[in-house]
What does this fold into?
Amino acid sequence: MFTSRFEWSVAMRYLFRPAREGLVSVTTVLSVIAIALGVAALISVMSLMNGFRADLIDSLLGFRGHAEVQSQTRQIRDYEGITARISAIPGVTSVRPYVAEQSVVGANGRNAGAFVRGLFSENLVVRKADGMKIVAGDLENFDNENGVVVGMVLARKLGLTVGSQITIFSPKSVPTPFGSRPRYLAYPVRAIVELGIHQFDEIFVGMPLYEAQRFFRTGDTVTNIDIFLDDPENIEAAMPQIVAALGDGPYGIASWRTFNTPLLKALRTDAIGMFLVLSLIVLVAVFNVSTSLVMLVKDKAGDIAILRTMGATRKSIRRIFLIVGLCTGAGGVLVGSFLASLFIFNLESIKGFVEWITGVEAWDPATRIVTELRAEVDWSEVSLTIGLAILLSFLATILPAILASRTDPVSILRHE
It folds into this structure.
C-alpha cells in the first residue's frame, strides 16, 4: 500500500532530477522564475502605492485636520472657549484655531500666490510630528516676533533664505482720501519648512496668530478651527459631540472624508485596478506551470505506467503531480517574496541607481505631489497575493494531474 511519503518521494525526484534532455527541468525553472517575478511585482507595486497613499493622507490631514470648523461669516468668536470644549471630547488630541487668507507675496522682484495662515507656535511644533520638517531657521519666539515661516518650494521660487524680507499683500484694501490702495507689509523669514506635499510647500506662509489678526483685520476672531483625533477613522462617531461643543452659531463642520472624497475614491479605484492588472502577470505565469507539467507527464509516461503496474492508484498519480505543481508555485512565491523584500528595503538605493543611470529624477515632487517615495507593506495584501499565486498554481496542476492519472499503462508499456 502506497503512502503519502511515497508520493512526496516520487514528486521530489521529478522536481529535482533532470528529465530526459533536460527540457522539463528548464521549463520548471522558468515557471518558478515567472511566478516569482509576478509575485514580486505585485507585492512591490502595491507596497509603493500603500506608501504613497499613506504619505498623501498623512500630509493632507496634517495640513487640514481630521475635521474643520468654519463660519459662514468667516469669523469664529470665542474660539478659545470652543477650543477648550472640543479638547475635552474623548479621542480629540489637538484643536488648532487659525486665521487663513489667500494672498500675494513678493520678494526679490518676484511675486507668487500664497495661502497665509496665522497660528500659534505650538501648532507648528505639533506639525513637526505630522511630518513637517524645518529646512532652515528655527521656531523660537515665533509668537513674540514679527516673523514668518515659508514653504520650501515658495522660498526657492522667491529666492528666500532665513533673514530675507517677504512682502505680504492683504486682500483687503485701505481707504484713503485719494481712493483705495493695497495694504502690504514686509516680514523677515524666520524659518523655511517642508510640509511633505509639493503643492502645500509652494503656497504656505505661516505667521503668529495675533499678527495675522492685526494684518488681515479680523479682530479677536479666527476663520477656521482644525480638529485632530487619535484615530481619524473615528471622526464620524465624534461629530455629534463636536457639533454640541460648538453651540449655537453660523458654524459648519466637515470631516476629512468629506473634503477628500474624490481623492480617496480615486486612490481606492487605482489600488483595485493595479491589483487586478498585476494579478494577470501571476495568471500568465501559472500557465507555464501547466505547460511544464504536461511536458513532464509526457516525459514520464513510462514511469507512470510502471508505477501503475506496481499498484499505484490513479489518485496517487494525481497527487504526485499536484505536489509537483504546488511545489513549483510555492517556490515561485518564496523567491518572489524575497525579491520584493529586497526591493522594498533597498528602495532608496535602487532609486538613486536609476537616477544615476538615466540622469533623470525618478520621483519628481512637482508631479507626484508627495515629496518622498516610500513603501508600506500591507500584510493582508501580501497574504492575498500569496494565496492567489498558490490557488492559481493549484488550478494549473489539475488538468496535467488528471491527464497523468488517465495514462494507460498497457499501451505505454507495449511501445516501450
Summary: The first strand starts at residue 67 and ends at 71.
